[in-house]
Write a structure and sequence with these properties.
The complex is a heterodimer.
Chain A (H helix, E strand, L loop, with lengths): L1 H14 L2 H19 L5 H8 L8 H26 L8 H12 L3 H35 L3 H17 L5 H16 L1 E2 L6 E2 L5 H4 L4 H19 L19 H23 L5 H14 L15 H16 L1 H7 L5 H12 L8 H4 L1 H33 L3 H20 L3 H18 L5 H23 L6 H4 L1 H18 L1 H14 L1
Antiparallel strand pairs in A: 1-2
Helix pairs in contact in A: 1-17, 2-4, 2-17, 3-4, 3-10, 3-15, 3-18, 4-5, 4-6, 4-13, 4-15, 4-17, 5-6, 5-13, 6-11, 6-13, 6-14, 6-17, 7-8, 7-20, 7-22, 8-20, 10-18, 10-19, 11-12, 11-13, 12-13, 15-20, 18-19
Chain B lengths: L4 H21 L14 H20 L16 H19 L10 H14 L7 H22 L9 H4 L1
Classes of the chains: A mainly alpha, B mainly alpha.
């Protein structure tokens, strides 16, 4: 306990320096902005901004990038409530009750419930992260290569099981990602693989290039070929922001439930903000209504407070596997791993011990960022609503431009510009064939690590594959991965899963 | 008869990628589990991908057509203009010596990229695109040249030489 307090004190001393607090604020504002703007998500934004973080210290860079991710959760709820358009996938369920509330003239309390819910959940998520990361990292330090390999298998399987769509296609996307990750010089033998004698390819394919091509350009092309984005803006003025006492009483229990759900689901591979919001809404829907309460789906404040709390807690908890194990549970965290590698920090369980100021500074900055978001966003609602009126036809050329500049300045080579176009096309084709691109990113980031751990595990065992099932932790992880696959293939659950993702559309 | 067109094609694409990587992998040493060569991991991953692709394609064949698997209309406009704008940015920024095109510098590249990218939308208006391009060119100058001082050629090379 004392140690935790000391660590948090260290964290706050780092996060509260003028520079770090400024970048936390910039990150949060930028996150809210992209959260408000549909068609631009945190993955593309973080990928675009990675080059800009070269000059910063690692902790400052991570503080800003993290701010973008959880800031986007705040912004996404604003559009969900006011425009019935989720700025982020994690706000999809917020549209159900949030927009109904706005139509009933209760936009103010809905926005306040989302903001307050997010803040409380953010606080709980931060404590959760601070309390659980260190013990988890201690356990992970005992892991050998076999355990790591099995953990990655479990992580990747989990990520696709929780994703929507076809399981077989998602696994295929992971494998494609693993293979793309093989391009470049093999660290073990020094042989350039799949390089066709081109020095640029021998350096490997940067994930920034893939992320921008697939998420940046791919998303724009997908949006444009689907036709114009419709945005009917609620023109009435938002009045009476403060919730009544009854509202407060109604929203507190769902906020706490949402925060708990989000913290737990956020740690799971493939988890994070979106899954947490869905789970929380399901829980609130199952709860019996009090006499006189509006049913969920028709403008109940519980349907806003719960999921909004859950998505924020989930966003923060998804940092746990990234920071303690070095394993990204979702594409945003994959980019964070990349950001750490840019600054020569190898993500993994040793980070907390070797870079305590980085870890605790980031944790503390999340709480500060949440407080900033609450204070800034509620009075600034008017500004964000104004931004919604920016038409997409002004937005997407700007995104293309900043992607192109960002890609070029990463390595100052025009080669990356050709590659980003190639991956944009590749990602677009795969998306049109109904595949999701997130698993590809995870495979790409984990590919070289998986190969290395597999190699080491098999060298130690003298080539016997049984090493993965005779070591207890490794065996447990593989059994869990297998159980996930069996579960998802069982007919009863398959049907429920399809229904769950139908609602999302 | 194909039941699910998207899956049918996806499986084929996956198989093609798998075959390409597997063929590449066997040109490096594959080795054994205890002594993995450079080709070992990619070879087996590619094999699994080929098998999975085959399975996806085979199971997409059937009597009843699944409307969810329809490919939908092909709208090439966004693809051409978005990717075209990106390529144009690279060509204009550094030039293309093979056809004797000199570097045109950041300002020209930004302006052209924005206009071409704007053409990807269905509601393209010349005047609006030009205004947007001017604003963004000015923004980029202030941001990247004046403030961040990035090492970029700003003007066309024949003007600065």
């Amino acid at each position: 306990m004392n140690e935790l307090l000391n660590n948090l004190a260290l964290g706050f001393s780092v996060a509260l320096t003028f520079q770090n607090a400024m970048y936390a604020l910039i990150g949060c504002l930028m996150g809210t902005l992209i959260g408000v703007l549909p068609g631009l998500g945190p993955v593309a934004t973080i990928a675009m901004l990675l080059p800009a973080t070269y000059a910063m210290s690692p902790v400052t860079a991570l503080i800003m990038l993290a701010g973008i991710y959880y800031g986007a959760q705040y912004g996404g709820s604003t559009t969900a409530i006011l425009v019935n358009l989720p700025g982020e996938p994690s706000s999809i369920v917020t549209t159900l009750d949030g927009h109904k509330m706005a139509l009933n003239g209760r936009a103010g309390p809905a926005l306040a419930a989302a903001g307050i819910g997010s803040f409380i959940a953010g606080t709980i998520g931060t404590i959760f992260l601070a309390a659980f990361a260190a013990p988890l990292a201690k356990v992970a330090l005992e892991f050998g290569p076999a355990e790591y390999f099995s953990l990655m298998v479990f992580g990747l399987i989990g990520a696709v099981v929780l994703a929507s769509g076809s399981l077989a296609k998602a696994v295929a996307m992971i494998l494609i990602g693993l293979l793309v990750g093989m391009i470049g010089t093999d660290v073990n033998s020094g042989i350039p693989r799949y390089a066709f004698d081109m020095p640029e390819l021998a350096d490997g394919i940067g994930f920034v290039v893939v992320a921008m091509g697939v998420f940046g350009y791919g998303e724009i092309m997908q949006n444009l070929s689907r036709g114009a984005l419709h945005r009917d803006i609620l023109t009435q003025k938002v009045t009476g922001l403060m919730p009544t006492r009854e509202d407060m009483k109604a929203m507190l229990p769902p906020i706490l439930r949402g925060a708990a759900i989000g913290s737990i689901l956020g740690i799971l591979p493939g988890g994070g903000a979106m899954l947490a919001a869905f789970a929380s809404y399901t829980v609130e829907k199952k709860k019996k209504l009090n006499p006189g309460e509006i049913p969920l789906g028709q403008g109940n404040i519980r349907g806003v407070a719960g999921p909004e709390a859950a998505n924020n807690a989930g966003a923060q908890a998804s940092f746990i596997p990234m920071l303690t194990l070095g394993i990204p549970p979702n594409p945003v965290m994959a980019l964070m791993v990349g950001a750490m590698m840019i600054h020569n920090i190898q993500p993994g369980p040793q980070v907390i011990a070797s870079n305590p100021e980085l870890f605790w500074g980031l944790v503390a900055s999340m709480w500060i960022g949440n407080a900033m978001l609450l204070v800034l966003n509620l009075p600034m609602i008017g500004v964000w609503v104004k931004l919604l009126t920016v038409p997409y036809r002004w937005l997407f050329p700007s995104i293309v431009l900043f992607c192109a500049i960002g890609v070029f300045t990463t390595n100052n080579t025009v080669w990356d510009i050709w590659m980003v176009a190639l991956f944009g096309l590749f990602g677009y084709i795969l998306m049109r064939l109904g595949a999701e691109v997130a698993p590809l990113m995870l495979g790409l980031v984990l590919g070289p690590m998986m190969e290395e751990f597999l190699r080491r595990a098999l060298i130690v065992s003298g080539g016997r594959w049984s090493v993965f099932v005779t070591r207890p932790i490794s065996a447990t992880l593989l059994v869990m991965a297998a159980l996930l696959v069996v579960l998802i293939l069982s007919p009863a659950l398959k049907k429920r899963r399809e229904e769950a993702f139908k609602e999302e559309d | 008869m194909i039941k699910h067109h998207q899956n049918f094609l996806f499986g084929l694409v996956a198989m093609m990628i798998g075959i390409a990587f597997a063929l590449g992998a066997v040109t490096y040493s594959v080795g054994t589990a205890a002594r993995m060569g450079a080709g070992y991991f990619p070879f087996y991953v590619a094999c699994v991908l080929i098998a999975l692709g085959l399975w996806i394609t085979v199971t997409s064949v059937g009597r009843k057509r699944d409307p969810e698997g329809d490919l939908g209309g092909l709208n090439l406009r966004p693809v051409i203009f978005i990717l075209g704008a990106n390529l144009l940015f690279g060509i204009l920024l550094v030039g293309l010596p093979s056809i004797g095109l000199p570097s045109m510098g950041l300002l020209v590249a930004v302006f052209a990229t924005v206009v071409v990218a704007a053409m990807a939308g269905q509601e393209f208006v010349w005047r609006e695109a030009l205004v947007l391009a001017v604003i963004l060119t000015a923004t980029c100058y202030v941001l990247f040249v004046a403030l961040l001082k990035l090492n970029l050629s700003v003007l066309p090379s024949f003007l600065t030489a």
